[in-house]
Amino acid sequence: MRTLFRLKTQQLISRTFIHPVSLPAPGGWRAAPSRLCSSPPNEDRPRPSMLRHLTSKIKATGPIPVAEYMREVLTNPVTGYYVRNNMLGPDGDFITSPEISQIFGELIGVWIISEWMASGRPRRLQLVELGPGRGSLAADVLRVFGQLRSVLAEASVSLHLVEVSPALSLVQAGSLTADGGRAANGEDEAAYRRGETAAGLPVSWYRRLEDVPAGFSIFVAHEFFDALPIHKFQRTERGWREVLVDIDPEKPDALRFVVAPAPTLASATLPQVGERRPHVEVCAEGGVLVQQLARRIAEDGGAALIADYGHDGTKTDTFRGFKGHRLHHVLDSPGSADLTADVDFSYLRRMAGGGVACVGPVTQRSFLKNMGIDARMQALLRSCGDPAVRKQLLASYDLLTSPAHMGERFHFFGLLHPSRLQAPPTPQGLKLERRRSPAPLPVAGFAELSYT
Q1: How far apart are CA 293 and CA 415, in angstroms?
Q2: Distance in angstroms (rounded) separating the CA atoms of residues 40 and 123
Q3: What is residue 86's predicted lDDT score, i.e. its pLDDT?
Q4: Rounded to a whole number, what is the distance in angstroms from the first to the last CA of the chain?
Q5: DSSP letters of 48-73?
Q6: Which residue has the higher pLDDT, 65 or 42?
Q7: Are strands 251-259 and 357-363 parallel, antiparallel or unpaired?
Q8: With contact defined as beta carbons under 8 Å apart, do 413 and 306 qualify?
Q9: Whole-prediction pTM value?
Q10: Residue 11 and residue 40: Cα distance in Å, rounded?
Q11: Is the bond into 361 cis (omega within 30 degrees of 0)?
């Protein structure tokens, strides 16, 4: 069975990669290897509306937690960064792996189908993406679904996008649907936008994960958890204290970090007992979200694939901002730059609990190589005679896999139904009791598969 699964995974990859990659013209866009670039602070004037909103809030209630600051700056319905800005792509503030090469999304599509097959080929397959950006990843995955239509022939496939930005939902609809989508009819309807792909697959948009219908689902979250609000805590002689955002008394139009003089509810509950790091960041909202994913997978089946900047409980201060592909001070010009913090996968693992099986984290380099990116690149290079295109292919491969770029900074983490990694029970009976129970099927991407 293990050999058969490896063969089927190899067949999925080979059948998916029969079409060439469409690439931007050389020099058409500037790919940033990661968000870890540098720039001087105070390069822009503060955005009056967001800064005025924050200072008014602080004057009224006192210093606010970093989590509240992030939430306001990124998702405030009037002046939030994700609501007002076009932040993706070479002209935005950062560029993501799906924009670098469609091979990335193709391999994610193969992973989704391989997990659907390993789960017994359920009749219903919901692809749920959290924070889908421009829709590039979903488009690449759906293209794989189309190329493997015969494999998915008996499944009812639908796409569900969790997106808080109305502006981005329109961009996604224009990319993914045949008619640009349409607003939902009633306010009591869970989805706020609906549409259909050119192939007739239904697409729905939601503001919250809990609004997505129940059922067997494969959840994908690429560069989503790193933008969720974090609480920051500093170890002091009197115990953990929360780091807050306050108005700088010497500069009324500027903000600063301060340490709370007394315990807060967050500092009393969120840091782990026995934590040895002097400074920790805890994404409570991410923990709740992982619990929701774990509950849905345990009840309805499926899997979740989380890909993000992150660590396994080792880093301390990772809170940073990005504007125009350069580092931007997190307290300068609030609302004009992206804010992010590395994902603590050890925390997500604890919050997922025992109802699901967790795999990873593994580096993006390991995941993509395990998924067969080298074989895909070799096939493309053999069939490509244009030196400029070959150079672009090699550059995109380097950005995705090199330890100096995204290869070691990005990590993949998975949640699976516990039955996915359990060996079937040993058959009983006089003639059958000596047979060995088959081993669990390997998880593509997280294990090195031998295609022989």
Answers
A1: 8
A2: 54
A3: 53
A4: 14
A5: HHHHHHHHHHHHHH-SEEHHHHHHHH
A6: 65
A7: unpaired
A8: yes
A9: 0.83
A10: 50
A11: yes
